[in-house]
Write a structure and sequence with these properties.
Helix content is 37%, strand content 14%. α3 crosses α4 and α3 crosses α7. It binds pyridoxal-5'-phosphate (PLP).
Length: 388
């Protein structure tokens, strides 16, 4: 008999009446896209993280692509990122015909290790894309130091980290550019959506350009003389990466609930830490003092020496208990596409080692105390069956 009858997902959106009403109001309004809901949402996110500018984009991946464009990343450049991330953190580099370079992780926090970054810097390095994995802040100070020393741009992939603070400051207010994602499993959702925050006006203008085909109506940016009030110019090759007013209306009412979302996530994580640290064979992610983490993912590491079986069997047993576990992530360069590009196994040994023994447990604000207890029950059941 499984510990529960219904399947508990690993992540899920939280939608209330205000969210639904906000989207309906927009549907009844004048704009479905390029309307006022977009700026309202951008201002709300910028204010929340303490950034001067924010540009909302169709999804987090497109936002990363836009940031790479704004950073001037192009063919021949190298960009350093973490192997323990969603493919988008490296794909955005390939979109610009540049080369992703993977720097290994800290084996305890699972975040990119600044010392490893420095060892990967060459004369071709143009930028660093650190990833705040699970929502825990990377150690930004040494990364920003490196960026100053070697004249690099920092683009934070904070898809997991809306609401996280590094040394008291919100992620999104610190480096050149920061990307957040609004996919339904992330801190707040717009269905699909992403945003870049920045304090730099020049980068802000480049992001706006890229979001709309490379087209501008800004006279200062236009190359030829203005023909008349109808005139606009395409001055570079951009994309249609616009987000809709419907999505941004949802984002705005979601942002009203962010404190509650984070509070509940922190509560659940504290309870996970308390319950799971008692279980021999389970290792908990190290939390650095400099990070006040908004908690996107909860990951356990199995001490496989203490189990009769591998991670796969433990994973399958938890699924059989109706606990929606997951694995984040296969090191990016081990995907067949990256292998075809010539990245070899063994490139980042700590990342590969971590991948073998991790399992992501369910974590989202609407998870009930009963749901939580079911996860703990299932883990105890599976661990006692499989531990040596
Ligand atoms: C979710 C996510 C993204 C962006 O994803 P979209 O689905 O395109 O919004 C980027 N990086 C990481 C690490 C992510 O988890």
């Amino acid at each position: 008999m499984p510990v529960r009858n219904s399947y508990l997902p690993y992540g899920k959106q939280f939608i209330d009446k205000e969210d639904i009403q906000g989207v309906i109001n927009t549907l009844n309004g004048d704009y479905l896209t390029t309307g006022p809901a977009i700026e309202e949402f951008e201002k709300k996110v910028a204010k929340y993280v303490g950034a001067k500018y924010a540009v909302a984009i169709s999804n987090g991946t497109a936002a990363l692509h836009a940031a790479c464009y704004a950073a001037g990343i192009k063919e021949g450049d190298e960009v350093i990122t973490s192997p323990i991330t969603f493919a988008a953190s490296a794909n955005c580099i390939l979109y610009c015909k540049a080369k992703p370079v993977f720097a290994d992780i800290n084996p305890d926090t699972y975040n990119i290790d600044p010392k490893e970054i420095e060892s990967k810097i060459t004369s071709k390095t143009k930028a660093i894309i650190p990833v705040h994995f699970t929502g825990q802040s990377v150690d930004l100070d040494p990364i920003i130091e490196l960026a100053k020393k070697y004249n690099l741009i920092v683009i934070e992939d904070a898809a997991h980290a809306l609401g996280t603070k590094y040394k008291g400051n919100y992620i999104g207010s610190i480096s050149h550019m920061t990307e957040f994602s609004f996919h339904p499993v992330k801190t707040v959702t717009t269905g699909e959506g992403g945003i870049i925050t920045t304090n730099c006006k020049q980068l802000y203008e480049k992001l706006l350009l890229f979001r709309t085909h490379g087209i501008t109506r800004n006279e200062k940016l236009m190359i030829t003389k203005e023909d008349g009030p109808w005139h606009y110019e395409q001055i570079d090759l951009g994309y249609n990466y616009r987000i809709t007013d419907l999505q941004c209306a949802l984002g705005t009412t979601q942002m009203d609930k962010i404190d509650f979302f984070i509070k509940r996530r922190k509560e659940l994580v504290n309870r996970y830490n308390k319950e799971l640290s008692k279980i021999d064979g389970i290792i908990i992610q190290k939390e650095e003092d400099f990070s006040d983490t908004s908690r996107h993912l909860y990951i356990i590491k199995l001490d496989l020496n203490k189990f009769k079986v591998g991670r796969k069997e433990v994973f399958e047993a938890l699924i059989a208990e109706n606990i929606g576990v997951n694995v984040h992530y296969l090191p990016v360069y081990l995907h067949p596409y990256y292998q075809k590009l010539g990245y070899e196994k063994g490139l980042c040994p700590r990342a590969e080692e971590l991948y073998k023994s991790i399992i992501t447990l369910p974590l989202y604000p609407s998870m009930s105390d009963e749901d939580f207890n079911d996860v703990i029950k299932a883990i105890n059941k599976v661990v006692s069956a499989y531990r040596i």
